[in-house]
Amino acid sequence: MSDPNARGPQDASARPVRRGDLTVHELDGEALIYDASSADTHRLNSTALFIWRLCDGRYDPEQIARKVADVYEVSLDDARRHVLSMIEAFARRQLVVPPASGGEDGPGV
Amino acid sequence: METRRFRFGAVCAALTTPLRSVLDDYTELYRHSVSTIGHRGEIHVQVTPRPRSLRHRRRFDVTVNGRRQFEPGRLDEILPCIEWSIGWEVPRILPHYLQIHASAMEVDGQGVIFPGLSGRGKSTLTVGLLTRGWRYLSDEFALLEADSLQLHAYPRAICIKRPAFPVLEQLRVRLHRDKCYLKGAKGFVGFVRPLDVRPDCLGRACRIQFIVFPQYTPGTATVLVPMHRAEAAFALHETCFNLLNCRRPGLEVMVAMIRDVRCYRLFHSDIQATCDTLQELVIGARQQRQCGA
Questions:
Q1: Nearest CA in chain B to A43
Q2: Chain B residues with CB inside 8 Å of A25's CB?
Q3: Which of A26, B23, B228, B240 is deepest in the core (most CB within 10 A)?
Q4: What ipTM does the predicted assembly reach?
Q5: Structural fold of domain A17-95
Q6: How close A7 comes to chain B (CA, Å)?
Q7: What integer pLDDT is reported at residue B66 of this predicted model?
């Protein structure tokens, strides 16, 4: 039996991958994401959208946090906390998948 | 049994019933919408009384295109049931329109919609703005054509709940026949004929320029708060009846429409102050456009 939490989204070594089958509508720097499989719609504010775009399987949460700290001029600690909770929220809403499952290929939305 | 036909913008309906009082009441409410010819795809509503017996209470069957939809027990419940029945069929017969739970108005070619669930003050606000010269498109839901993104008229009577009747007095607007009807959980309601408020009140198809989400809160001052477009689109998608059944993907239509629209939340209670605020908003926008032109 494996521990289901061993490589959860909050695991600093996991590289989250956004799902490639979602429809993304950007509006003035924010986004509406439509999940046809569940018929759910999600709204991402500008920070969430920035983080979600970086979920392309190339960056782990620590690397994403560094980029957030750079762009938004916040401390690395704050950025880490925010990024981890955001990735957790993406996973809960099934907007990202574990890296092995395959998501979107390239960076950017 | 007698049948009368009506046309409400793009929607055609036929009402058949042996109940003379119901037929006359409905025809009087929509006397400007009476149509003499049948239309393909019209919504057919039939109201029939069930045979009465000592064991069974009085009941009526309200069917829509052959399906039983309501079973009102009182005569004054029937008219709201007919209104509901027609409204529920609209997404099916007009799949090329996005149907939004909102009232819709036109002012100088600018479309304004007031989306929101029941109790937000949409209908009362609509009547108030009619008295200020705004033109009427629809009350219970706004019809947005998916390809052209034009807002279209669906000019039904405006349904006002009893707690808002004093506001009508303030506006000097009378209810249809001064009558009350029972509308399920909404309690007693009355209907306002827009053409009774102003004979020239019907609006033309237009693009939406403003989306205003009203929130009626007794005693509150009138405040208009700008909304981010993504926030407005998210709120709007929750008020859409046929997001998944529209011919074009509903969210895509909504986002395309909202890109050039100004969005607000409106906290309101006093009808005159609210109408003043909205007048300023649209007149200000018109003046800005004229200065820019």
A1: B234
A2: 233, 251-252, 255
A3: B240
A4: 0.71
A5: Arc Repressor Mutant, subunit A (1.10.10)
A6: 32
A7: 93
